[in-house]
Amino acid sequence: MQIAIAKTDIADRGRPYVPEMRKHVGHSLIAVPGARAVIRRRSGEDILLHRRLDFGVWALPAGSPEIGESIVDCMRREVFEETDLKVAAYRCFGFSSDPEREIVRYPNGDVLHCYSLLFEVELEDEALDRVDMEKIAAETTALKWFALNDLPEMIDNHRCTVESYIGFRSDGVFRVS
User: Fold this and answer.
1) In what helix (H) or strand (E) does residue 142 lie, and over which residues does it extend?
2) How far apart, in whole angstroms, are the C-alpha atoms of residue 135 and residue 141?
């Protein structure tokens, strides 16, 4: 007996899920799966953050899957959309869903409860001077490497993700919150 639906059977495949749901529920709280990427520099302890257009503060590349998209493909797409850089390697280090941190109200009034798989990411090319900032301007106003011990103002749940990442790096234990 076949239970799974084939990718080709999904009519809305490739369409953004959250905007589709917003058509039905307005700004009300919705639960969404997501991916969050801690992009680490190969040399050193720096991580790459982007300044978000919507919140105006620094954050990790993150987002929710499109309809019919895997969580890994979501992470790769979000990294590319928000940084114009491609993922070379990754590994999962945690999962975050604690409502105290993961229920977020966006500047436009939308409310999400994020259920995010957390990834450590290495890039194919770390050179920020080759990034086309116009290409990512819909979501990102700046990109910058930051030392783990000298982070700027960030979105709270993203800062918690970095703290989980630091813990994971020290003991190798998968984090769940």
Assistant:
1) strand 140-147
2) 11
- 89: Cβ contacts below 8 Å, ≥ 6 apart: 121, 122
Q: Tens digit of pLDDT for each residue in 12-58?
A: 778 888 988 899 999 999 999 999 999 999 987 899 999 999 999 99
Phi and psi of 18, rounded to 5°? -60, -50
Mean pLDDT, rounded, of the chain? 93
- Rounded to whole angstroms, how far apart are CA atoms 78 and 66? 10
Strand partners of residue 176 = 95
35: helix, strand or coil: strand
Read off the pTM: 0.92
Eight-state DSSP code of residue 80: H
